[in-house]
Amino acid sequence: MEQVLNQMLSKYQINNVDDKKNAIKEIVQEIVLCGLSRGGFFKKVAFYGGTALRIFYGLDRFSEDLNFSLTSQSLNFDLTKYFPYVENETKSLGLDFSIQEKVKSPESNIKSAFLKGNTKEHILTFYENSEDAKFINKAEVIRIKFEVDINPPLGATYETKFGLLPSPYQVRLYDLPSLFAGKIHACLCRNWRLRVKGRDFYDYVFFLSIGAKVNIENLKAKLVQSKFISADYDLTIDNLKILLNERFEHIDFVQAKEDVLPFVKDKSKLDLWGEEFFKEITKNLKAV
To answer: Is CATH 1.10.287.1770 the right assignment for the domain spanning 1-174?
Structure first.
């Protein structure tokens, strides 16, 4: 148990207590994936979003949540049947986490749950005799949200990836073009608590930096489902660039940078952020 956690911790550079908390959250995310895999979760479900991009493609920012999508619609999907596998996986490593479903309205297409554990307790589990622990409120909680889209848009394509720690596991994952489609959808459609979610735009830059192409069929399905475009809209790559450029013209990039700053270590990557920068890099956007 201790050896596995130490192996997982070894890849982190820790400079302060926030780094410790983020490292614990990221490690627990991978433990959750392992537990879900043991429970057969990925026979019906695919992993996507920022955390998927971080774990399997090297995205260099912290990502808080675990996002999943069914591979085909199932409005009666029971997320709770997988909870015991997640709790057993954490307990097998000496961690004390509990998981609870968040009940949403019957009309919601999202099933949600939160995994929770005491921060102070787990700082001491991961970092024995840590001096930081004495300054942490005893009621503070590590909280990891995961969500499953039970009515996914059509057109996503998948690949299989493997993790080795805490134990070898297999994950069905959106492939890179489909991951990129999800991120562009977020850039176009998502505001977060009346603020722009700068993390979406950080990830957009990352996708372009690794030469990813977008699954435009899946993106169109997402945009139609969100009522951002009509079903008869001709979503060519050129039209997509126009939509993105129009979006960039209305982004408060100062606010966007403020959102993403706590999640990145190299703050200089945000220095060029602005309408001109995003429009220029979008010239490189390509479809599969």
So the answer is: no
